[in-house]
Write a structure and sequence with these properties.
Layout: H1 7-10, H2 13-20, E1 29-35, E2 38-45, E3 71-84, E4 90-108, E5 111-127, H3 128-134, E6 140-152, E7 157-160, H4 177-180, E8 187-192, E9 198-212, E10 215-235, E11 238-250, E12 257-270, E13 273-288, E14 291-299, E15 305-307, E16 310-312, E17 319-324, E18 328-332, E19 336-338, E20 343-350, E21 358-362, E22 367-382, E23 392-395, E24 399-403, E25 408-409, H5 413-416, E26 420-428, E27 436-440, E28 445-454, H6 456-485, E29 517-518, E30 525-526
Parallel strand pairs: 1-10, 14-22, 22-28
Antiparallel strand pairs: 1-2, 3-4, 3-13, 4-5, 5-6, 6-7, 8-9, 9-10, 10-11, 11-12, 12-13, 14-17, 15-16, 15-18, 18-21, 19-20, 20-22, 22-23, 24-27, 25-26, 26-28, 29-30
Protein backbone atom coordinates (compact mmCIF):
# COMPACT_ATOMS: atom_id res chain seq x y z
CA UNK A 1 0.00 0.00 0.00
CA UNK A 2 1.32 3.46 -0.91
CA UNK A 3 1.40 5.94 1.97
CA UNK A 4 1.98 9.69 1.79
CA UNK A 5 1.52 12.85 3.78
CA UNK A 6 -1.72 14.73 3.18
CA UNK A 7 -1.39 18.04 1.41
CA UNK A 8 -3.36 19.76 4.16
CA UNK A 9 -0.83 18.59 6.74
CA UNK A 10 2.49 19.30 5.17
CA UNK A 11 1.67 20.48 1.66
CA UNK A 12 4.45 18.87 -0.35
CA UNK A 13 8.19 18.63 -0.56
CA UNK A 14 8.75 22.14 -2.01
CA UNK A 15 6.85 23.75 0.83
CA UNK A 16 8.60 21.61 3.41
CA UNK A 17 12.04 22.33 2.08
CA UNK A 18 11.35 26.03 1.70
CA UNK A 19 9.81 26.34 5.15
CA UNK A 20 12.60 24.52 6.86
CA UNK A 21 15.04 26.63 4.92
CA UNK A 22 13.64 29.75 6.42
CA UNK A 23 10.18 30.46 5.00
CA UNK A 24 6.82 29.35 6.26
CA UNK A 25 5.95 26.84 8.94
CA UNK A 26 8.66 25.00 10.80
CA UNK A 27 7.20 21.50 10.36
CA UNK A 28 9.40 18.43 10.62
CA UNK A 29 10.05 17.07 7.16
CA UNK A 30 8.82 13.65 6.21
CA UNK A 31 10.99 11.94 3.62
CA UNK A 32 9.40 9.74 1.05
CA UNK A 33 11.13 6.39 0.71
CA UNK A 34 10.37 4.55 -2.47
CA UNK A 35 11.23 0.84 -2.44
CA UNK A 36 9.94 -0.72 -5.61
CA UNK A 37 6.34 0.41 -5.69
CA UNK A 38 6.01 1.02 -1.96
CA UNK A 39 6.25 4.43 -0.33
CA UNK A 40 6.88 4.66 3.40
CA UNK A 41 7.37 7.65 5.66
CA UNK A 42 10.49 8.57 7.54
CA UNK A 43 9.51 11.13 10.14
CA UNK A 44 11.12 14.10 11.85
CA UNK A 45 14.13 14.60 9.55
CA UNK A 46 15.02 18.18 8.77
CA UNK A 47 16.37 18.79 5.30
CA UNK A 48 17.76 22.31 5.17
CA UNK A 49 18.31 24.20 8.38
CA UNK A 50 19.48 27.77 8.15
CA UNK A 51 21.69 28.08 11.20
CA UNK A 52 24.12 30.98 11.16
CA UNK A 53 27.18 30.59 13.31
CA UNK A 54 29.87 33.11 14.06
CA UNK A 55 33.30 31.52 14.48
CA UNK A 56 35.19 34.78 14.85
CA UNK A 57 35.57 36.77 18.06
CA UNK A 58 34.70 40.21 16.72
CA UNK A 59 33.08 43.30 18.24
CA UNK A 60 29.31 43.10 18.24
CA UNK A 61 26.59 45.65 18.06
CA UNK A 62 24.43 46.02 21.12
CA UNK A 63 20.70 45.53 20.91
CA UNK A 64 19.93 49.04 22.10
CA UNK A 65 18.84 49.80 18.55
CA UNK A 66 16.13 47.14 18.80
CA UNK A 67 12.90 48.23 20.42
CA UNK A 68 9.68 46.55 21.43
CA UNK A 69 7.12 46.83 18.65
CA UNK A 70 9.59 46.79 15.76
CA UNK A 71 8.53 44.51 12.93
CA UNK A 72 9.54 43.56 9.43
CA UNK A 73 7.80 41.38 6.86
CA UNK A 74 8.66 39.34 3.78
CA UNK A 75 6.64 37.76 1.03
CA UNK A 76 7.60 35.17 -1.50
CA UNK A 77 6.79 32.20 -3.64
CA UNK A 78 8.26 28.70 -3.65
CA UNK A 79 7.92 26.42 -6.64
CA UNK A 80 8.57 22.70 -6.64
CA UNK A 81 8.33 20.45 -9.72
CA UNK A 82 8.97 16.75 -10.20
CA UNK A 83 9.05 14.71 -13.40
CA UNK A 84 9.10 10.95 -13.58
CA UNK A 85 9.98 8.46 -16.31
CA UNK A 86 9.41 4.74 -16.66
CA UNK A 87 7.38 3.43 -13.78
CA UNK A 88 7.06 6.97 -12.41
CA UNK A 89 5.88 8.57 -15.63
CA UNK A 90 4.06 11.80 -14.77
CA UNK A 91 4.47 15.31 -13.35
CA UNK A 92 3.95 17.18 -10.10
CA UNK A 93 4.04 20.93 -9.66
CA UNK A 94 3.36 22.83 -6.50
CA UNK A 95 3.34 26.59 -5.87
CA UNK A 96 3.26 28.13 -2.44
CA UNK A 97 2.72 31.88 -1.97
CA UNK A 98 3.29 33.20 1.54
CA UNK A 99 3.95 36.17 3.76
CA UNK A 100 5.57 36.26 7.17
CA UNK A 101 6.00 38.96 9.75
CA UNK A 102 8.57 39.14 12.52
CA UNK A 103 7.79 41.32 15.52
CA UNK A 104 10.00 42.16 18.47
CA UNK A 105 7.79 41.54 21.48
CA UNK A 106 10.29 42.27 24.21
CA UNK A 107 13.91 43.35 24.70
CA UNK A 108 15.50 42.52 28.02
CA UNK A 109 19.23 43.08 28.12
CA UNK A 110 20.67 40.85 25.40
CA UNK A 111 17.55 38.68 25.14
CA UNK A 112 15.10 39.34 22.33
CA UNK A 113 11.64 37.78 22.19
CA UNK A 114 10.35 37.58 18.61
CA UNK A 115 6.96 36.55 17.30
CA UNK A 116 6.82 35.06 13.82
CA UNK A 117 3.51 34.87 11.95
CA UNK A 118 3.35 32.96 8.67
CA UNK A 119 0.38 32.61 6.33
CA UNK A 120 -0.03 31.51 2.76
CA UNK A 121 -1.76 29.36 0.21
CA UNK A 122 -0.68 26.48 -1.97
CA UNK A 123 -1.85 24.63 -5.05
CA UNK A 124 -0.62 21.43 -6.66
CA UNK A 125 -1.17 20.02 -10.15
CA UNK A 126 -0.53 16.34 -10.90
CA UNK A 127 -0.47 13.86 -13.74
CA UNK A 128 0.35 10.19 -14.31
CA UNK A 129 1.98 8.29 -11.52
CA UNK A 130 2.05 11.35 -9.24
CA UNK A 131 -1.69 11.81 -9.55
CA UNK A 132 -2.33 8.19 -8.63
CA UNK A 133 0.12 8.50 -5.76
CA UNK A 134 -1.57 11.67 -4.50
CA UNK A 135 -5.02 10.13 -4.52
CA UNK A 136 -7.96 12.11 -3.19
CA UNK A 137 -6.06 14.41 -0.87
CA UNK A 138 -6.56 18.16 -1.15
CA UNK A 139 -4.83 19.82 -4.05
CA UNK A 140 -4.92 23.35 -2.69
CA UNK A 141 -5.25 25.02 0.65
CA UNK A 142 -4.16 27.80 2.98
CA UNK A 143 -2.48 28.04 6.35
CA UNK A 144 -1.58 30.46 9.13
CA UNK A 145 0.71 29.88 12.09
CA UNK A 146 2.35 31.89 14.85
CA UNK A 147 5.51 31.03 16.78
CA UNK A 148 7.53 32.68 19.53
CA UNK A 149 11.30 32.63 19.94
CA UNK A 150 13.76 33.96 22.45
CA UNK A 151 17.14 34.75 20.94
CA UNK A 152 20.44 35.78 22.45
CA UNK A 153 21.43 38.93 20.51
CA UNK A 154 25.25 38.62 20.66
CA UNK A 155 25.34 34.98 19.46
CA UNK A 156 22.12 34.83 17.49
CA UNK A 157 21.21 31.52 19.13
CA UNK A 158 17.79 30.38 20.23
CA UNK A 159 17.16 30.40 23.95
CA UNK A 160 13.71 28.93 23.36
CA UNK A 161 11.95 27.95 20.17
CA UNK A 162 9.08 25.97 18.74
CA UNK A 163 10.46 22.86 20.37
CA UNK A 164 13.33 21.76 22.56
CA UNK A 165 15.29 21.02 19.40
CA UNK A 166 15.84 24.74 18.79
CA UNK A 167 17.61 25.40 22.07
CA UNK A 168 21.15 26.76 21.63
CA UNK A 169 20.89 26.57 17.84
CA UNK A 170 21.44 29.75 15.81
CA UNK A 171 18.52 31.55 14.22
CA UNK A 172 18.47 32.46 10.56
CA UNK A 173 16.08 35.42 10.42
CA UNK A 174 18.07 37.83 12.61
CA UNK A 175 21.84 38.14 12.97
CA UNK A 176 24.23 40.58 14.54
CA UNK A 177 25.18 42.95 11.68
CA UNK A 178 28.54 43.62 13.27
CA UNK A 179 29.43 39.95 13.27
CA UNK A 180 28.17 38.96 9.86
CA UNK A 181 30.04 41.82 8.29
CA UNK A 182 33.33 40.99 9.95
CA UNK A 183 34.84 38.84 7.24
CA UNK A 184 34.41 36.79 4.10
CA UNK A 185 33.16 33.71 6.00
CA UNK A 186 31.22 34.65 9.08
CA UNK A 187 27.87 32.96 8.46
CA UNK A 188 27.00 29.29 8.16
CA UNK A 189 24.15 26.86 7.69
CA UNK A 190 23.70 23.15 8.11
CA UNK A 191 23.94 21.74 4.61
CA UNK A 192 22.80 18.26 3.67
CA UNK A 193 25.55 16.55 1.70
CA UNK A 194 25.11 13.85 -0.92
CA UNK A 195 25.15 11.16 1.77
CA UNK A 196 22.24 12.74 3.58
CA UNK A 197 24.30 14.09 6.46
CA UNK A 198 23.87 17.62 7.78
CA UNK A 199 27.17 19.44 7.98
CA UNK A 200 27.98 22.97 8.99
CA UNK A 201 28.83 24.90 5.84
CA UNK A 202 30.17 28.42 5.74
CA UNK A 203 28.63 30.91 3.40
CA UNK A 204 30.50 33.63 1.59
CA UNK A 205 29.56 37.09 2.94
CA UNK A 206 29.85 40.16 0.75
CA UNK A 207 28.18 43.47 0.14
CA UNK A 208 25.29 43.88 -2.26
CA UNK A 209 22.81 46.54 -3.28
CA UNK A 210 19.19 45.80 -2.44
CA UNK A 211 15.94 47.66 -1.94
CA UNK A 212 14.27 48.50 1.37
CA UNK A 213 11.08 50.55 1.08
CA UNK A 214 12.02 51.25 -2.55
CA UNK A 215 15.31 52.81 -1.46
CA UNK A 216 18.46 51.15 -2.74
CA UNK A 217 20.88 50.45 0.11
CA UNK A 218 23.95 48.32 0.76
CA UNK A 219 23.24 45.04 2.57
CA UNK A 220 25.09 41.88 3.56
CA UNK A 221 24.67 38.88 1.27
CA UNK A 222 25.46 35.40 2.56
CA UNK A 223 25.55 32.86 -0.27
CA UNK A 224 26.57 29.30 -1.00
CA UNK A 225 26.24 26.80 -3.82
CA UNK A 226 27.07 23.13 -3.60
CA UNK A 227 26.05 19.49 -3.82
CA UNK A 228 23.09 18.30 -1.79
CA UNK A 229 20.23 15.83 -1.75
CA UNK A 230 16.68 16.10 -2.97
CA UNK A 231 13.42 15.12 -1.29
CA UNK A 232 13.17 11.52 -2.49
CA UNK A 233 14.89 8.45 -1.05
CA UNK A 234 14.44 5.30 -3.11
CA UNK A 235 16.58 2.86 -1.18
CA UNK A 236 17.50 3.55 2.40
CA UNK A 237 20.49 5.85 2.37
CA UNK A 238 20.22 6.37 -1.39
CA UNK A 239 18.83 9.82 -2.23
CA UNK A 240 18.33 12.00 -5.18
CA UNK A 241 21.44 14.10 -5.58
CA UNK A 242 22.06 17.42 -7.23
CA UNK A 243 23.17 20.98 -6.59
CA UNK A 244 21.53 23.83 -4.83
CA UNK A 245 22.28 27.53 -4.34
CA UNK A 246 21.14 29.66 -1.46
CA UNK A 247 21.42 33.39 -0.77
CA UNK A 248 20.21 35.44 2.19
CA UNK A 249 20.21 39.22 2.54
CA UNK A 250 20.61 41.03 5.89
CA UNK A 251 20.33 44.74 6.47
CA UNK A 252 23.32 46.54 7.98
CA UNK A 253 21.34 48.41 10.64
CA UNK A 254 19.56 45.68 12.58
CA UNK A 255 20.59 42.40 10.97
CA UNK A 256 17.06 41.51 9.82
CA UNK A 257 16.73 39.04 6.96
CA UNK A 258 15.17 41.08 4.16
CA UNK A 259 15.24 38.58 1.30
CA UNK A 260 16.19 35.11 0.23
CA UNK A 261 16.56 33.27 -3.05
CA UNK A 262 17.66 29.82 -4.06
CA UNK A 263 17.21 27.04 -6.53
CA UNK A 264 18.18 23.40 -6.90
CA UNK A 265 18.01 20.45 -9.28
CA UNK A 266 18.05 16.81 -8.15
CA UNK A 267 17.82 13.50 -10.03
CA UNK A 268 17.59 9.82 -9.15
CA UNK A 269 18.15 7.09 -11.71
CA UNK A 270 16.81 3.58 -11.17
CA UNK A 271 16.26 0.59 -13.40
CA UNK A 272 12.50 1.12 -13.28
CA UNK A 273 12.65 4.83 -14.00
CA UNK A 274 13.80 8.20 -12.74
CA UNK A 275 12.42 11.07 -10.75
CA UNK A 276 13.91 14.47 -11.36
CA UNK A 277 12.92 17.51 -9.38
CA UNK A 278 13.58 21.25 -9.34
CA UNK A 279 13.10 23.70 -6.52
CA UNK A 280 13.08 27.48 -6.59
CA UNK A 281 12.29 30.09 -3.96
CA UNK A 282 12.25 33.88 -4.03
CA UNK A 283 11.32 36.22 -1.21
CA UNK A 284 11.67 39.96 -0.77
CA UNK A 285 11.21 42.70 1.76
CA UNK A 286 7.69 44.05 2.15
CA UNK A 287 7.42 46.46 5.05
CA UNK A 288 8.85 47.52 8.40
CA UNK A 289 8.52 50.23 11.00
CA UNK A 290 12.24 49.99 11.76
CA UNK A 291 12.91 52.45 8.94
CA UNK A 292 11.24 55.57 7.65
CA UNK A 293 11.65 57.13 4.25
CA UNK A 294 12.36 60.85 4.19
CA UNK A 295 12.08 62.52 0.79
CA UNK A 296 13.30 65.99 -0.10
CA UNK A 297 12.35 68.28 -2.94
CA UNK A 298 12.20 71.95 -3.81
CA UNK A 299 9.71 74.14 -5.62
CA UNK A 300 10.81 75.35 -8.04
CA UNK A 301 13.36 72.59 -8.47
CA UNK A 302 16.32 74.93 -8.90
CA UNK A 303 17.95 74.89 -5.46
CA UNK A 304 20.08 72.43 -3.49
CA UNK A 305 19.02 70.70 -0.27
CA UNK A 306 21.62 69.81 2.36
CA UNK A 307 20.84 66.70 4.40
CA UNK A 308 23.07 65.70 7.32
CA UNK A 309 25.81 67.96 6.03
CA UNK A 310 25.81 66.76 2.41
CA UNK A 311 24.46 69.01 -0.33
CA UNK A 312 22.25 67.50 -3.01
CA UNK A 313 21.94 69.59 -6.15
CA UNK A 314 18.70 70.45 -7.90
CA UNK A 315 19.50 67.78 -10.50
CA UNK A 316 19.37 65.11 -7.76
CA UNK A 317 15.90 66.10 -6.53
CA UNK A 318 13.64 64.58 -5.49
CA UNK A 319 16.00 62.70 -3.16
CA UNK A 320 14.90 60.02 -0.69
CA UNK A 321 16.70 58.59 2.32
CA UNK A 322 16.15 55.48 4.40
CA UNK A 323 16.49 56.45 8.06
CA UNK A 324 16.27 54.19 11.07
CA UNK A 325 13.22 55.02 13.15
CA UNK A 326 14.06 57.34 16.02
CA UNK A 327 17.30 58.65 14.53
CA UNK A 328 18.06 62.39 14.53
CA UNK A 329 18.83 64.31 11.35
CA UNK A 330 19.43 67.85 10.16
CA UNK A 331 18.59 69.42 6.85
CA UNK A 332 18.54 72.93 5.49
CA UNK A 333 18.34 75.11 2.42
CA UNK A 334 19.69 78.57 1.61
CA UNK A 335 17.39 81.47 2.43
CA UNK A 336 18.16 83.16 -0.90
CA UNK A 337 19.51 81.42 -3.98
CA UNK A 338 20.71 83.19 -7.13
CA UNK A 339 19.48 81.93 -10.45
CA UNK A 340 20.13 83.27 -13.93
CA UNK A 341 20.83 86.96 -14.40
CA UNK A 342 18.07 88.96 -12.78
CA UNK A 343 16.48 85.91 -11.14
CA UNK A 344 16.62 84.72 -7.53
CA UNK A 345 14.67 82.41 -5.26
CA UNK A 346 13.66 83.38 -1.72
CA UNK A 347 12.74 80.64 0.78
CA UNK A 348 9.11 80.84 1.89
CA UNK A 349 8.48 77.70 3.96
CA UNK A 350 8.65 73.89 4.05
CA UNK A 351 5.69 71.93 2.78
CA UNK A 352 4.64 71.13 6.36
CA UNK A 353 4.41 74.85 7.15
CA UNK A 354 7.73 75.25 8.99
CA UNK A 355 9.20 78.70 8.26
CA UNK A 356 12.84 78.13 9.29
CA UNK A 357 15.15 77.04 6.45
CA UNK A 358 17.29 74.92 8.84
CA UNK A 359 15.77 72.04 10.82
CA UNK A 360 16.61 69.18 13.14
CA UNK A 361 14.14 66.36 13.74
CA UNK A 362 13.79 62.81 15.02
CA UNK A 363 12.51 60.45 12.36
CA UNK A 364 9.29 58.75 13.35
CA UNK A 365 7.32 58.35 10.15
CA UNK A 366 7.77 58.76 6.44
CA UNK A 367 7.50 62.31 5.22
CA UNK A 368 8.23 64.44 2.18
CA UNK A 369 9.89 67.76 2.95
CA UNK A 370 9.60 70.21 0.10
CA UNK A 371 11.32 73.57 0.30
CA UNK A 372 8.95 76.12 -1.22
CA UNK A 373 10.56 79.18 -2.74
CA UNK A 374 9.20 82.40 -4.18
CA UNK A 375 10.68 83.37 -7.53
CA UNK A 376 11.76 86.99 -7.72
CA UNK A 377 12.86 89.08 -10.70
CA UNK A 378 15.02 92.18 -10.66
CA UNK A 379 13.75 95.53 -11.95
CA UNK A 380 16.47 97.99 -12.98
CA UNK A 381 15.34 101.62 -13.38
CA UNK A 382 18.04 103.59 -15.20
CA UNK A 383 18.17 107.37 -15.68
CA UNK A 384 20.90 110.00 -15.98
CA UNK A 385 18.87 112.32 -13.80
CA UNK A 386 15.58 112.67 -12.00
CA UNK A 387 16.20 110.46 -8.92
CA UNK A 388 14.88 107.18 -10.45
CA UNK A 389 12.72 105.13 -8.11
CA UNK A 390 11.59 101.46 -8.23
CA UNK A 391 14.78 99.43 -8.72
CA UNK A 392 14.82 96.16 -6.72
CA UNK A 393 13.62 92.54 -6.48
CA UNK A 394 9.94 91.68 -6.82
CA UNK A 395 7.85 88.52 -6.67
CA UNK A 396 7.01 86.84 -9.91
CA UNK A 397 3.75 88.17 -11.37
CA UNK A 398 3.60 91.30 -9.23
CA UNK A 399 2.89 94.79 -10.64
CA UNK A 400 5.59 97.32 -9.83
CA UNK A 401 5.58 101.13 -10.12
CA UNK A 402 8.69 103.09 -11.11
CA UNK A 403 9.23 106.83 -11.65
CA UNK A 404 11.54 109.80 -12.10
CA UNK A 405 11.28 113.44 -10.97
CA UNK A 406 10.60 115.93 -13.78
CA UNK A 407 11.24 118.70 -14.86
CA UNK A 408 14.80 119.54 -13.73
CA UNK A 409 16.74 122.82 -14.14
CA UNK A 410 19.43 122.72 -16.79
CA UNK A 411 22.94 123.24 -15.51
CA UNK A 412 24.89 126.42 -16.36
CA UNK A 413 23.86 129.66 -18.08
CA UNK A 414 20.80 128.17 -19.76
CA UNK A 415 19.54 127.06 -16.36
CA UNK A 416 19.75 130.63 -15.04
CA UNK A 417 17.53 131.67 -17.88
CA UNK A 418 14.93 128.96 -17.05
CA UNK A 419 16.16 126.05 -19.19
CA UNK A 420 14.90 122.61 -18.05
CA UNK A 421 15.39 118.83 -18.59
CA UNK A 422 11.95 117.34 -19.23
CA UNK A 423 11.09 113.56 -19.12
CA UNK A 424 10.06 112.35 -22.55
CA UNK A 425 9.38 108.56 -22.43
CA UNK A 426 10.61 105.17 -21.14
CA UNK A 427 12.61 102.72 -23.21
CA UNK A 428 13.54 99.05 -22.68
CA UNK A 429 10.78 96.97 -21.12
CA UNK A 430 8.36 99.91 -21.00
CA UNK A 431 7.31 102.48 -23.58
CA UNK A 432 5.18 104.60 -21.22
CA UNK A 433 5.25 108.37 -21.74
CA UNK A 434 4.43 109.31 -18.15
CA UNK A 435 7.11 109.90 -15.55
CA UNK A 436 5.43 107.33 -13.25
CA UNK A 437 4.55 103.98 -14.82
CA UNK A 438 4.17 100.29 -13.90
CA UNK A 439 5.25 96.91 -15.26
CA UNK A 440 4.29 93.27 -14.57
CA UNK A 441 7.25 91.22 -13.31
CA UNK A 442 7.06 88.15 -15.51
CA UNK A 443 10.82 88.16 -15.90
CA UNK A 444 13.85 90.40 -15.29
CA UNK A 445 13.07 93.98 -16.42
CA UNK A 446 15.13 97.02 -17.35
CA UNK A 447 13.62 100.44 -18.08
CA UNK A 448 15.47 103.63 -19.00
CA UNK A 449 14.17 107.19 -18.75
CA UNK A 450 14.68 109.24 -21.91
CA UNK A 451 14.90 113.06 -21.52
CA UNK A 452 14.70 116.13 -23.75
CA UNK A 453 15.91 119.68 -23.16
CA UNK A 454 13.27 122.45 -22.84
CA UNK A 455 15.09 125.77 -23.58
CA UNK A 456 12.07 127.74 -24.72
CA UNK A 457 12.33 130.19 -21.83
CA UNK A 458 16.04 130.98 -22.31
CA UNK A 459 15.46 131.37 -26.01
CA UNK A 460 12.57 133.77 -25.42
CA UNK A 461 14.65 135.83 -23.01
CA UNK A 462 17.62 135.93 -25.35
CA UNK A 463 15.36 136.80 -28.24
CA UNK A 464 13.82 139.62 -26.23
CA UNK A 465 17.24 140.98 -25.32
CA UNK A 466 18.35 140.80 -28.92
CA UNK A 467 15.22 142.64 -30.06
CA UNK A 468 15.76 145.34 -27.45
CA UNK A 469 19.36 145.82 -28.51
CA UNK A 470 18.35 145.98 -32.15
CA UNK A 471 15.70 148.56 -31.37
CA UNK A 472 18.12 150.72 -29.40
CA UNK A 473 20.75 150.52 -32.07
CA UNK A 474 18.20 151.39 -34.70
CA UNK A 475 17.05 154.45 -32.76
CA UNK A 476 20.60 155.63 -32.22
CA UNK A 477 21.41 155.13 -35.84
CA UNK A 478 18.38 157.15 -36.88
CA UNK A 479 19.39 159.98 -34.53
CA UNK A 480 22.85 160.15 -35.93
CA UNK A 481 21.56 160.14 -39.46
CA UNK A 482 19.26 163.02 -38.62
CA UNK A 483 22.09 165.05 -37.20
CA UNK A 484 24.12 164.42 -40.28
CA UNK A 485 21.33 165.81 -42.54
CA UNK A 486 20.60 169.05 -40.45
CA UNK A 487 22.03 172.57 -42.19
CA UNK A 488 24.49 174.87 -40.33
CA UNK A 489 22.48 177.94 -39.02
CA UNK A 490 23.73 181.44 -38.02
CA UNK A 491 24.08 182.34 -34.45
CA UNK A 492 20.81 183.08 -32.79
CA UNK A 493 20.23 184.62 -29.49
CA UNK A 494 18.67 182.39 -26.95
CA UNK A 495 16.24 185.24 -26.30
CA UNK A 496 12.66 184.80 -27.26
CA UNK A 497 11.84 185.27 -30.94
CA UNK A 498 9.81 188.34 -30.20
CA UNK A 499 12.87 190.12 -28.76
CA UNK A 500 14.70 192.54 -31.01
CA UNK A 501 18.11 191.49 -32.30
CA UNK A 502 21.10 193.21 -30.76
CA UNK A 503 22.74 195.99 -32.61
CA UNK A 504 25.65 195.09 -34.86
CA UNK A 505 29.10 195.46 -33.37
CA UNK A 506 31.03 198.56 -34.13
CA UNK A 507 33.39 198.39 -36.97
CA UNK A 508 36.86 197.40 -36.09
CA UNK A 509 39.84 195.94 -37.67
CA UNK A 510 39.24 193.22 -40.10
CA UNK A 511 39.75 189.69 -38.59
CA UNK A 512 38.59 186.07 -39.10
CA UNK A 513 35.24 185.27 -37.42
CA UNK A 514 35.39 182.66 -34.61
CA UNK A 515 34.31 179.09 -35.33
CA UNK A 516 30.59 178.57 -34.94
CA UNK A 517 29.35 176.18 -32.13
CA UNK A 518 26.11 174.25 -32.11
CA UNK A 519 24.16 172.51 -29.35
CA UNK A 520 25.03 168.84 -29.21
CA UNK A 521 21.44 167.93 -28.42
CA UNK A 522 19.14 170.25 -30.36
CA UNK A 523 21.63 171.69 -32.89
CA UNK A 524 20.98 175.36 -32.36
CA UNK A 525 23.98 177.75 -32.77
CA UNK A 526 25.70 178.65 -29.53
CA UNK A 527 28.26 181.30 -28.56
CA UNK A 528 31.73 179.89 -28.12
CA UNK A 529 31.75 180.69 -24.43
CA UNK A 530 28.42 179.13 -23.49
CA UNK A 531 28.52 175.89 -21.58
CA UNK A 532 24.78 175.20 -21.55
CA UNK A 533 22.27 175.44 -24.35
CA UNK A 534 19.83 178.27 -23.87
CA UNK A 535 17.21 176.32 -25.71
CA UNK A 536 17.38 172.68 -24.36
CA UNK A 537 19.64 173.24 -21.36
CA UNK A 538 22.04 170.45 -22.42
CA UNK A 539 25.58 170.69 -21.08
CA UNK A 540 28.12 171.47 -23.82
Amino acid sequence: MIRKVSGTQILSSSVRKAFLGGHGVYTPLVLFVLKGARLVILSSLLIILVVPTFPFAVPTRTNTDLRTGMYWSLSGINTYAATGTGTYEGTLREENSWTETFEIERVEGQTIRIKRVTSGSWVVTLSGWFERWWGNDDRDGSYSNAYHYEIDRPTGRYITGVSEWYKNKPSWFIVDPGRIGSGGQSFSQYWWDEEGKAKETFYRVSEKRASIKDIEVTVWEASYSGATIGNWEFIKGKYQTGTESDSLLFDMDFGFVIGRSGKGTYTYHAASGTISETFERESSFQDSNAWVVASFDAEPRTVAVTVDGKAHSANELPKSFLWTSGSSHTFNVEATVSGNSGVRYVFLQWSDGTKAPSRTLTSSHGETYKAIYTTQYELQVASQRGDPQGSGWYDKGSSVTFSVTTPLTVEGFMGTLGGKHVFDHWSGDSTATTASASVTMDGPKTVRAEWRADNSMPYMIIFGIVIAIVVMLTVLLLVRRRRARSPVSSYMSPLPISAAPPPPPPPGPTMMPPAQRFCMSCGVPLPASMRFCNRCGARQ
